């Protein structure tokens, strides 16, 4: 088994069997409850990977009911230092059609019912999320996409909405004023990872144009494009993981150093 850095991989059930049979299955209880499901441990390309299906077995947990705190805490307890997520998004831009891969560099939070911090009392930390995604992971992922001939669109703002419904046309036109892609799962995953001092990167895969376009979003269209994107993103991950075998050189692990009031 690899003794190097461990990676947390959060995504859909289509990634569950990637990398071969699991070496171990971890069922963890955290101070914030149970994660979405069991966490499968594998070694892929010499890197220890902990896979967690964000929406649980059979995609049974809607985005607003995911226990994000338990998910991030469980991966951190297992020793994950970097978190990669594969997330489906809608496009708010003509130049980002379905099938595009995006590495967002900013987010705007339009969720309203999710616990967003590990620090609910006793100690108060105000972590910086000025640059919410790990620059080192971004650099590695961009290079892996180029090598796999599946290049990422670099940069862009992800607006995270509560879900599980899709946007109205008015909302979609409003979001286009400041965002590039729209999804339901980035927040609070990204901020919780920062509080734990973990590197975090969202590998966003565009499945549809949001309803600023004439055609309304339909779940069947999203599901079809998700399946088409899956084998392509696996090719990127196969090239990305070996580059993560070395220790981190970013500042993500120091997020709390100057955050306490």
Could you give a quick summary of the protein structure above?
With 261 residues, the chain is an alpha/beta fold.
Overall pLDDT score: 93
Q: pLDDT below 50 for ≥5 consecutive residues: which ranges?
A: none
Distance between the termini: 41 Å
Give me the CATH superfamily: Nucleoside phosphorylase domain
Would you give an account of this structure?
With 261 residues, the protein is an alpha/beta fold. The chain contains 5 helices and 11 strands, in the order E-E-E-E-H-E-E-E-H-E-E-H-E-H-E-H. A hairpin with a 2-residue loop joins strand 3 (39-44) and strand 4. Helix 1 (68-78) packs across helix 4. It is globular. The mean pLDDT is 93.
Write the layout of secondary structure elements.
Blueprint: E1 6-11, E2 24-26, E3 39-44, E4 47-53, H1 68-78, E5 80-91, E6 101-103, E7 106-110, H2 135-147, E8 152-154, E9 157-161, H3 169-175, E10 181-183, H4 186-195, E11 199-209, H5 219-240
Parallel strand pairs: 1-4, 1-5, 5-11, 6-8, 7-9, 9-10
Antiparallel strand pairs: 2-3, 3-4, 5-10, 6-11
Question: What features would you highlight for this structure?
Answer:
261 residues, alpha/beta, Rossmann fold, 11-stranded mixed sheet
């Amino acid at each position: 088994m690899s003794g190097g850095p461990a990676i947390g991989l959060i995504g859909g059930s289509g990634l569950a069997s990637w990398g071969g049979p699991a070496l171990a299955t971890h069922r963890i209880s955290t101070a914030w409850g149970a994660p979405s499901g069991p966490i499968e441990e594998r070694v892929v390309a010499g890197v220890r990977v902990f896979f967690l299906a964000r929406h649980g077995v059979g995609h049974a947990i809607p985005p607003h009911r995911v226990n994000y705190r338990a998910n991030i805490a469980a991966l951190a307890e297992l020793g994950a230092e970097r978190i990669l997520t594969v997330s489906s998004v809608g496009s708010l831009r003509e130049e980002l059609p379905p099938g595009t891969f995006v590495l967002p560099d900013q987010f705007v939070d339009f969720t309203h019912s999710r616990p967003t911090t590990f620090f609910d009392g006793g100690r108060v930390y105000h972590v910086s999320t000025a640059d919410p995604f790990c620059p080192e992971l971004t650099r590695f992922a961009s290079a892996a996409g180029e090598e796999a001939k599946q290049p990422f669109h670099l940069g862009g703002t992800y607006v995270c909405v509560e879900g599980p419904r899709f946007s109205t046309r008015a909302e979609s036109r409003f979001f286009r004023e400041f965002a590039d892609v729209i999804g339901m799962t980035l927040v609070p995953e990204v901020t919780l990872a920062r509080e734990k001092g973990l590197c975090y990167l969202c590998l966003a895969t565009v499945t549809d144009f949001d309803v600023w376009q004439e055609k309304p979003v339909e779940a069947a269209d999203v599901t079809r494009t998700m399946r088409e994107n899956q084998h392509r993103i696996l090719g990127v991950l196969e090239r990305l993981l070996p580059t993560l075998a070395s220790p981190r050189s970013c500042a993500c692990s120091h997020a709390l150093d100057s955050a306490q009031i």
